[in-house]
Amino acid sequence: GYIAGATVPLEESSARYQMWKAENHMVMSWLLNSITNEMGENIMYHQTAKEIWDATRETYSNNDNPSAIFEIKRVLHDLRQGEMTITDYFNALIRYWQHL
To answer: Which domain holds residue 87?
Structure first.
């Protein structure tokens, strides 16, 4: 709802405005308390949970960042099992694949 945008801001004159505002602030608090202080300083002035979520996704997501995708692919290409157990090697591969 609040992050995906399904729950939209209400007009202050709406009977449910105070409930929406309290719930929105609760979600904003969860988001801000789950990130580092340095990250929070850049996004704490947004007015809604969705704005915070969108700003964080835009800033830190790798999906539309060609240089980050290239770096992950380079690491995957160069990754070797070496001294790692097969489980550790597989987990490392999975971790990088999930970033793509």
So the answer is: 66-99
The model's pTM: 0.55
Digit-coded pLDDT (tens) for 15-31: 888 998 899 899 989 98
The answer to whether residues 25 and 52 belong to one domain is: yes
Which token pair is 97?
A: 């694949």
Does residue 82 sit within a domain? yes
Domain shared by 51 and 78, yes or no: no
Q: CA torsion sign, 10 to 16 to 22 to 23?
A: negative
The three-state (H, E, C) secondary structure of the chain, written as one string: CCCCCCCCCCCCCCCCHHHHHHHHHHHHHHHHHCCCHHHHHHHCCCCCHHHHHHHHHHHHCCCCCHHHHHHHHHHHHHCCCCCCCHHHHHHHHHHHHHHC
Whether 1 maps to a domain, the answer reads: no
